Automatic annotation (TrEMBL):
PANTHER family: FLAGELLAR BASAL-BODY ROD PROTEIN FLGG, FLAGELLAR PROTEIN. Belongs to the flagella basal body rod proteins family. Keywords: Bacterial flagellum, Cell projection, Cilium, Flagellum. The keyword Transferase does not apply. It is found in: Bacterial flagellum basal body. Residues 88-153 form the Flagellar hook protein FlgE/F/G-like D1 domain. Residues 198-241 form the Flagellar basal-body/hook protein C-terminal domain. This is Flagellar basal-body rod protein FlgF. Signal peptide: none annotated. The keyword Transport does not apply.
Length: 247
């Protein structure tokens, strides 16, 4: 009976984790370049008891183990904006930016602009990295444009090239806040694996219908598991009460 309660609690913990992932996906349905995540779980079978005095063999107990999440790198819808500084990232590439403290981070947010210091930045204010550092332009320059290969040019010529990178193992990417990712594996030049579409933005690849369906499934399963735990707890209380009344 106690084991059944433990199994139920492990299921509830896993369902709560999945609910958090779904909530985060839904909260970022309108975030430029956001990539949804899916929970991963693994079955854990408890070892069978070694005693052989039972009339029937022990049954293995199956628990749920949280194995983290998988990043969905599917292309989000591309929306034309007409803004020459908006770029939709195509393929598996990410834009390298400089985060707080100077660390390099990665994003799919292609809503770019020029800040007061002349730096090309994302809509979140992170400087976009070029091959030699952050890309800057002078106030007197005009005709700022971004090419499909990431080349940034003005009326005075080429000012830099946006650093596009990919990863051998995209699932090593870790959400780092502010629509940024860090990685436990080194980044490599995107090459042909990444291009930009100027004058457009990649929207979130979250599917509202899919997430709502998952949300309903999780809530239904959580309610069912809670009901089972409640009945098992009532059964245990009844058993204790009856055993206490045995003369």
């Amino acid at each position: 009976m106690q084991n059944a309660l433990f199994v139920g609690v492990s299921s509830q913990v896993a369902l709560q984790r999945e609910l958090d992932v779904i909530a985060n996906n839904m909260a970022n349905m309108s975030t430029n370049g956001f990539k949804s995540r899916t929970s991963r779980f693994q079955e854990y079978l408890m070892p069978v008891a070694s005693a052989d005095s039972f009339s029937a063999p022990d049954r293995r107990l199956s628990y749920v183990i949280d194995q983290g999440t998988t990043l969905n790198l599917g292309q989000g819808p591309v929306e034309q904006t007409g803004n020459p500084l908006d770029v939709a990232v195509k393929g598996s590439a990410f834009i390298a930016v400089r985060a707080q403290g100077g660390a390099e981070r990665y994003t799919r947010n292609g809503a770019l602009s020029v800040d007061a210091r002349g730096q090309l930045v994302t809509s979140d204010g992170y400087p976009v990295m070029g091959e030699g550092g952050p890309i800057t332009v002078n106030p007197q320059e005009t005709g700022l444009a971004i090419g499909p290969d990431g080349t940034v040019s003005t009326n005075l010529g080429i000012r830099g090239r946006i650093k596009l990178v990919t990863f051998a193992n995209p699932n090593a990417l870790i959400n780092d806040g502010g629509n940024l990712y860090s990685s436990t594996s080194p980044a490599r030049p995107a090459g042909l694996d990444g291009r930009l579409e100027p004058g457009a933005l990649e929207r979130s690849n979250v599917s509202p219908v899919l997430e709502m369906t998952r949300l309903m499934d999780v809530n239904r399963t959580y309610t069912m598991v809670s009901s089972v735990i409640s009945r098992m707890d009532d059964l245990r209380g009844t058993a204790i009460s009856r055993l206490a009344n045995v003369a």
